[in-house]
Amino acid sequence: MPAVARSSVVEPTTAARPPVAAQTFLALGQRYAQSDAPAWRVDQQITVAKLDRDHYGIPRVTFRRGDGRELTLYTAQIEAAIADGQITPIVGRGIVARC
């Protein structure tokens, strides 16, 4: 049986997606608290621990709480909650920033 020649044609690749950080204002290390919780309490704050994509390519954010628990949500949900005032950014030692 004759050997089959292999093709040297390279399959086209899709354009690389920009990193999640380029598509959102969320950044690693940012701290947030619920608007009805005392902002100075570290156990009531959540910190951005990871920005990535799910298997469908949708950007998501993983938060870490003071007790070590993690919560992963879509960035669009978090951005909407911040814009609506449900979650407020924390600056310094528990001072609530104004958006």
Summarize the helices and strands and which ones pair or pack.
Blueprint: E1 31-34, E2 45-53, E3 59-65, E4 70-74, H1 75-84, E5 87-91, E6 95-96
Antiparallel strand pairs: 1-2, 1-5, 2-3, 3-4, 5-6
Annotated CATH architecture of the domain at 29-87? Beta Barrel
Query: Total number of β-strand segments?
Result: 6
CATH fold annotation of the domain at 29-87: OB fold (Dihydrolipoamide Acetyltransferase, E2P)
**Beta strand %:** 25-35%
Sheet with most strands: strand arrangement: 4-3-2-1-5-6
Which structural class should the secondary elements be placed in?
A: mainly beta
The helix count comes to: 1
Descriptive report:
- This protein has a domain of 59 residues: OB fold (Dihydrolipoamide Acetyltransferase, E2P) (Beta Barrel).
- The protein has a six-stranded antiparallel sheet, covered by helices on one side.
- The protein is globular and about 40 Å long.
- The chain has one helix and six strands.
- Helix content is 10%, strand content 32%.
- The chain is mostly beta strands and 99 residues long.
- About 11% of the residues have low confidence.
- A hairpin with a 4-residue loop joins strand 3 and strand 4.
